Amino acid sequence: MARIGIIGSEGRMGQAIAAALATAGETLSGGIDKGGDVEALAKDSDVLIDFSSPHALEANLDAAVAAGIPIVVGTTGLEERHHWLCDAAAENTAVLQTGNTSLGVTLLAHLVREAAQRLGDDWDIEIVETHHRMKVDAPSGTALLLGEAAATGRNIALADNSERGRDGITGKRGTGTIGFASLRGGTVAGDHTVHFLADNERIALSHLAENRTIFAKGAVRAAQWLLGKPKGRYTMPEVLGL
Ligand SMILES: NC(=O)C1=CN([C@@H]2O[C@H](COP(=O)(O)OP(=O)(O)OC[C@H]3O[C@@H](n4cnc5c(N)ncnc54)[C@H](OP(=O)(O)O)[C@@H]3O)[C@@H](O)[C@H]2O)C=CC1
Ligand SMILES: O=C(O)C1=N[C@H](C(=O)O)C[C@H](O)C1
């Protein structure tokens, strides 16, 4: 049995992960929130699970590296520099960062990549996500993950081909771009639809999360899988064998 530490332990996901750990028969080594001692938590743990804030990421990665333990990063709202930090930490320990730990979204990303690869850029791609009113980042990490999957299928760079935050006189849609739209309200755990829109026909690929259990179970599974892995950056498809 592994000792698993949670960063963001009192949050919505932190509590769901603690419940999933208990169900899986794993040991919770401890949990911290803002102002907590992540180095001490890392010393008491065999693996860390971080669902907190991008502001905490650097210290969390440093603590995992210093303690020589792997870390699962589920926090979203990450910018390019946060991905560089994950890459740097992965030179010294095992790091798995993902915008969504669920089996369903992991499979959806695979399907989106396949569809984008097969459909030409006369098929416009638009990603729509809906989340609860408490969510602080947009587009969601999952929407960006799905956008990356579509961009990979199209063999283009998402950063150079995104349309985000349309407002006012936007001009026509750019051919080959990937659009993002975010809805916020109520208690929605997380809905994502990738629309492929062509002349006279459309395809919509969706994942609807009914509660946070799916994310929590996936995070625990990722932590279990990371134990004993050599340094490097890992992905959810590897964890789930997809
Ligand atoms: N990858 C995935 O599958 C999923 C990812 N997420 C992501 O996980 C993150 C957390 O979501 P959620 O639980 O809903 O958010 P919450 O706001 O409910 O919880 C966040 C927790 O992190 C803590 N926290 C904030 N800053 C720090 C810090 N510097 N160091 C340590 N802890 C800190 C907060 O503590 P305090 O209250 O003291 O500030 C709080 O307890 C979000 O980025 C969300 O998008 C969510 C679901 C699934
Ligand atoms: O903040 C959330 O709640 C969620 N965040 C993740 C994201 O940004 O994609 C995953 C899930 O959709 C729930």
From TrEMBL:
Signal sequence annotation: none
Q: What is its EC number?
A: 1.17.1.8
First-level EC class: oxidoreductase
The question of whether Cytoplasm is a record keyword is answered with: yes
Q: What pathway does the annotation place this protein in?
A: Amino-acid biosynthesis; L-lysine biosynthesis via DAP pathway; (S)-tetrahydrodipicolinate from L-aspartate: step 4/4
* UniProt keywords, alphabetically: Amino-acid biosynthesis, Cytoplasm, Diaminopimelate biosynthesis, Lysine biosynthesis, NAD, NADP, Oxidoreductase
All copies of the Dihydrodipicolinate reductase C-terminal domain together span 104-240
State the superkingdom.
Answer: Bacteria
The record ties this protein, via Gene3D superfamilies, to:
Dihydrodipicolinate Reductase, domain 2, NAD(P)-binding Rossmann-like Domain
Ranges for domain Dihydrodipicolinate reductase N-terminal: 3-100
Active site annotated at which positions? Answer: 131 (proton donor/acceptor), 135 (proton donor)
Q: Which Pfam families match?
A: DapB_C (PF05173), DapB_N (PF01113)
**Primary location class:** cytoplasm
Q: How does it assemble?
A: Homotetramer.
The family assignment reads:
Belongs to the DapB family.
What HAMAP family would the database entry show?
DapB
Q: What is this protein called?
A: 4-hydroxy-tetrahydrodipicolinate reductase
| Record organism | Novosphingobium anseongense
